[in-house]
TrEMBL record:
<dbReference type="GO" id="GO:0015940">
    <property type="term" value="P:pantothenate biosynthetic process"/>
</dbReference>
<feature type="binding site">
    <location>
        <position position="176"/>
    </location>
    <ligand>
        <name>ATP</name>
    </ligand>
</feature>
<keyword id="KW-0963">Cytoplasm</keyword>
<comment type="function">
    <text>Catalyzes the condensation of pantoate with beta-alanine in an ATP-dependent reaction via a pantoyl-adenylate intermediate.</text>
</comment>
<protein>
    <recommendedName>
        <fullName>Pantothenate synthetase</fullName>
        <ecNumber>6.3.2.1</ecNumber>
    </recommendedName>
</protein>
<comment type="subunit">
    <text>Homodimer.</text>
</comment>
<feature type="binding site">
    <location>
        <begin position="30"/>
        <end position="37"/>
    </location>
    <ligand>
        <name>ATP</name>
    </ligand>
</feature>
<comment type="pathway">
    <text>Cofactor biosynthesis; (R)-pantothenate biosynthesis; (R)-pantothenate from (R)-pantoate and beta-alanine: step 1/1.</text>
</comment>
<comment type="similarity">
    <text>Belongs to the pantothenate synthetase family.</text>
</comment>
<feature type="binding site">
    <location>
        <begin position="147"/>
        <end position="150"/>
    </location>
    <ligand>
        <name>ATP</name>
    </ligand>
</feature>
<keyword id="KW-0547">Nucleotide-binding</keyword>
<feature type="binding site">
    <location>
        <position position="61"/>
    </location>
    <ligand>
        <name>(R)-pantoate</name>
    </ligand>
</feature>
<keyword id="KW-0436">Ligase</keyword>
<dbReference type="InterPro" id="IPR042176">
    <property type="entry name" value="Pantoate_ligase_C"/>
</dbReference>
<dbReference type="GO" id="GO:0004592">
    <property type="term" value="F:pantoate-beta-alanine ligase activity"/>
</dbReference>
<dbReference type="Pfam" id="PF02569">
    <property type="entry name" value="Pantoate_ligase"/>
</dbReference>
<feature type="binding site">
    <location>
        <position position="61"/>
    </location>
    <ligand>
        <name>beta-alanine</name>
    </ligand>
</feature>
Amino acid sequence: MQICRTKQEIRALTRRWRAEGRSIGFAPTMGYLHEGHLALVRRARAENDAVVVSIFVNPTQFGPNEDFDSYPRDPERDLLLLRAEGADAVFLPDAAEMYAPHAQTFVEAERLSRILIGRLRPGHFRGVATVVTKLFNIVAPDAAYFGEKDYQQLTVIRRMVADLDVPVRIVGVPTVREPDGLAMSSRNVRLSPEDRAAAPVLCRALDAAEARAARGPVSVEALRRLIRETLEASPRGRDPRVDVRAADDLSPLRGALRRPAVALISMRFGDVLLIDQRVIRPADQENAP
Ligand SMILES: Nc1ncnc2c1ncn2[C@@H]1O[C@H](COP(=O)(O)OP(=O)(O)OP(=O)(O)O)[C@@H](O)[C@H]1O
Ligand SMILES: CC(C)(CO)[C@@H](O)C(=O)[O-]
Ligand code: BAL
């Protein structure tokens, strides 16, 4: 496994692979890897001749009062895990390598980046779209793998790639969960034992909404209410946010659930913001092909 710390090194490597006719799968991450990240790497491994993973805690997607400094990091362990998964190269730049000192060009999916998590974290999706564009330009992969857990991020990246004709196939990978249902996240290690015990309420609220929709006709408002009530019953989480939107483009939905929707939720436990998501189909589409 090659470890590249400069753009020049990783560019030279992927250029050589392309010249040899090898397809390249790419999984961008912020490190502190868990089974969710490894699911991206395995999918990339299964679908491509060569696999590149990046590890970069991107400062520009964190707000001034967010957890950039306390974001968990363990690059040595990450490299061991990636070697075991058969990754071919890891791109591990530092911030000075990634960003020119006076950068003033940004990528932003305007409407999508201002709703939901974008309202809680102003500037976040501009930081994500910009760094992902840079990473795509540096690595030039055929396909890139992103977790459905960060559903709004995945939607922003699909939009950006379509709008700017970026020649990369975007693949969404289902959320990997702990045995009690909590979506795996690097930030879970920062939960207190009490908050960790309470956090699966996010998944339970989504299970309840999915089960309700499977039983028969239901309105989007009723689903939203059911999720909110489940979250509000939690003794520990704060500031629950719930939305149910069109699964393909996150446009608002009202009235009867007639098309696939996605429930997007977030809640704070201590100073940790947890998110989760579930695609919910109307009952008559449950068994559709
Ligand atoms: N549980 C998961 N299942 C599948 N993919 C995941 C999971 N968690 C993260 N990913 C994906 O891994 C990629 C890198 O995410 P990142 O490094 O931010 O990890 P994270 O665990 O989501 O961290 P955070 O605590 O910031 O949410 C993203 O595409 C993300 O959606
Ligand atoms: C896509 C990403 C690596 C960009 O920094 C990050 O937002 C993440 O880890 O999901
Ligand atoms: N997993 C999304 C990256 C972030 O929370 O900043």
